[in-house]
Amino acid sequence: MHKIDIPQFLVQRMQSRLGRLHIFETIVPARTAHLVVDLQNAFMAPGQPVEVPLAREIVPNVNRISAAVRAAGGIVVFLQNTMDAATHDSWSNYLENFLSPERQERFDAAFRPGSFGHSLWPALDVTAADLKVPKYRYSPFVSGSSDLHALLGKRGIDTLIISGTSTNVCCESTARDASMMNYKVIFVADGSATYTDAEHNATLGNLLLFVDVVTTDEVVALLGRHTPR
């Protein structure tokens, strides 16, 4: 698990602006979705091309949050990073300039629908009521990346809890875009993972300007206060 270390001056700055530590002290669970970002075999399984070893350690926390969201009346959405031929045309600048040809080939194979790498990590608790949404960019909210925004809109969702991998790429991209699209965003510090503590904590510090950064215990407690008895 990452050692969380958000610079104190950033925490103090946010507290001085808001007058309290956390932004969202109440939520409506029926309008809440837990977005589980890219916890797929390609990121999780040992030896896979984009393995994030620490991501395996957050799975119990992710499952706890999912269970709490379901119990409170919200929904769980598993996002799956996906590559196909159309993506190469529409996202060519990134793929051709930021990935070597060899890495492109491995990336394609890992995230091809139906492949081992594309599948969700088997230790995740997934129910028939959960949604599985493929996305074709780091953020599901970019135009053409997914139909997530429409799916959430149909269900009246206005609050998002974000966990998954990697913290500083797909999770951060998703959180920033969601905030700009007027969602209330809760980012789970010990429910997300990347390669190093430095990268993880840099994202947590940056996201304080956009989202509420919390722990698993805190978000489960928040949901528990609104769970039907």
Descriptors for this entry?
single chain, 229 residues, alpha/beta, Rossmann fold, six-stranded parallel sheet, 6 strands
How many helical elements?
Answer: 10
How many structural domains in the coordinates? 1
The portion of residues assigned to helices is 40-55%
Structural class comes to: alpha/beta
Name given to the CATH architecture: 3-Layer(aba) Sandwich
Termini separation comes to 33 Å
Structural overview:
With 229 residues, this protein is an alpha/beta fold. It has a single domain, classed as 3-Layer(aba) Sandwich (Rossmann fold), CATH 3.40.50. It is 41% helix and 17% strand. It contains 10 helices and 6 strands; from the N terminus they run αβααβαααβαβαβαβα. A 6-stranded parallel sheet has the order 3-2-1-4-5-6, sandwiched between helices. The longest helix has 14 residues. It is globular. The mean pLDDT is 92.
Question: Could you outline the blueprint of secondary structure elements for this entry?
Answer:
Blueprint: H1 8-18, E1 32-37, H2 41-44, H3 59-72, E2 75-81, H4 85-90, H5 92-98, H6 101-110, E3 131-135, H7 148-154, E4 159-165, H8 167-180, E5 184-193, H9 197-207, E6 212-214, H10 216-224
Parallel strand pairs: 1-2, 1-4, 2-3, 4-5, 5-6
